[in-house]
Design goal:
40% of the residues lie in helices and 23% in strands. It is an alpha+beta fold and 97 residues long. The chain has one domain. It starts with a helix and ends in a 10-residue tail after the last strand.
Amino acid sequence: MRNNDSVTSSLRPPEDIDAHELGRRSHATLRLGLLMLGSGTASYRVKQGMKTVAKSLGIEEHSEQVTLMEITTTSRVGQQFRTEVSELRHSSVNADR
């Protein structure tokens, strides 16, 4: 197992997160959700994965709405928030099983 100390030590504490940094972290969480959703992962697992990543990135509160082809997410740190909506344009689910 890899040592991730270098990754977590480079994250700023929540009180130092500005709007730009919150946007970067929120977008990283959304990207994970889109990758999972596009590969056929159930929406519950997508939500679970996104919450885990958001917590590890220092996002204090994270909520998401996952449908078959869209994800809406809001990330909050202190008084700042970031809401993003993204549509999955191509799914790669192999339904030939």
